[in-house]
Amino acid sequence: MAREPYWLVNVPQGKWPNECPEFLINANAKDRGILSTLDADYKRQTWPEVQQIIKSNRIDRFQRVPSDLRRYLGYNAKLKKEYGSVMNFVLTERLQWKDLTPSPSVSFTEPSDVKILYNDWPYGVDQKIVHLVIWTKFDLEDDPLMDDLTPRVRKEIDDYVDKTFCKRVRPDNVWLAHSSYVGVLMFKKVIWFKNWRSLKSVHAVEHFHIMLYDPDPDFVREITNGDVPLSAKVA
Fold it and tell me: What's the rounded Cα separation, in Å, for the pair 142 and 47?
């Protein structure tokens, strides 16, 4: 843990601001703790740890590398000023969807209703892990009493993940396990989850997350149509 205030950690001394940047003033306790950690002291979460986090439905345990978290918070603040909200930016620039009305087709059967992109600001996990986000125009129905997906939607996602991702993984790398909490379809190298409502950074557009362990780069380029995450483009 560094001795400097959390808003100065991992910033070269010659670039220290005179006061806490506006986008960090209201950082919550979890974020302040991460921001107070030197990048050199941060331990990335391993693939087994990632699987356990998702299987136990403790998505809140994911966190970003300290300097990446600072960039993430700063960039989100910039987007809110320029676009009014992160959601507006995602719709306009990332998804480029002018209309969120889904087709009348069954969920996951119409390509124009689904878009697969990189998570722009991935968590601080093993760098062999690729984190993608599957955006949908159609609703992924929750059970309001359980704050979880309905069994029907869970199966629809399972089937989609199996067809789109798992069929591209060698059979000897596949095994199946369902969480009693979130109905996760989990393979040795493929796992999906949907954030709790309280953890979503973009609320108005449905999406869930896919993590792939050490996937073929050509497959990732194909499935994302050559997408590049924002974190790799901005300073």
Answer: 27
Which helix (DSSP H) or strand (DSSP E) does residue 159 occupy? helix 151-164
**209: β partners:** 133, 193
C-alpha 41/C-alpha 166 separation (Å) is 35
Listing DSSP states for 43-57 in one string gives: -PBPHHHHHHHHHTT
48: how many CB neighbours lie within 10 A of its CB? 10
pLDDT digits (tens, 9 = 90+) for 29-75: 999 999 999 999 999 999 999 999 998 888 889 999 999 999 999 99
E-strand stretches of 106-187: 114-118, 129-136, 142-143, 148-149
Dig out the tokens for 20 from the structure: 């806490």
Write out the H or E segment, with its range, that includes residue 213: strand 206-213
